[in-house]
Amino acid sequence: MAEGSVSLADVENSFQKFAVHGDTKATGKEMNGKNFVKLCKDCHIIDGKNVTTTDVDIVFSKVKAKSARVVTFDQFNQALMELAPKRFKGKSKEEAVQQLYGLIAEKEPANVGVTKATKASAVDRLTDTAKYTGSHKERFDETGKGKGKAGRENIPDASGYVAAYKGKGTYEDKVKEA
């Protein structure tokens, strides 16, 4: 290998990371076509001009065994040998392969486009209890915490002799006056 070249171990390390990406049963020894395309996209081997996803799929199909759906690291290297001259036109095959290795070495699968839980401003506005009006604001205390059942229902006071008697606790005062 030439001076300043990338070690094959670094490339194999990236190969293993991409091989297990998204597959819980993967061992890291073999890579499927979907992960091969992902590696090519994430490592910028696919540039949209010289190398497209179609090119990558064709090369993958060419290097894998006839009935297999995965490639080993050796077959992966063969695929890179075929893609390198396409990606780096005008360079010698060795130079192109080294530059390709440079793109791949120490890379990990990017989780671009993975859904993140976000709280949109509309949700903030709708769940801000300080902005509630009417009977809805009765359901929350000053801190914005819900009161539970007490905030939803009018619970009758059944403590007096007569149901819904408004003058509770005033009898003693009336007797003393007399």
Automatic annotation (TrEMBL):
Chief location: cytoplasm
Ranges of residues in domain Cytochrome c: 28-108
UniProt-recorded Gene Ontology molecular function terms: electron transfer activity; heme binding; metal ion binding; tubulin binding
Location in or out of the cell: Cytoplasm
Highest taxon in the source lineage: Eukaryota
Matching InterPro entries: Cyt_c-like_dom, EF-hand-dom_pair, TPP/p25
Pfam family, any one: p25-alpha
PANTHER family, sorted: P25 ALPHA-RELATED, TUBULIN POLYMERIZATION-PROMOTING PROTEIN FAMILY MEMBER 2
Name the record gives this protein: Tubulin polymerization-promoting protein family member 2
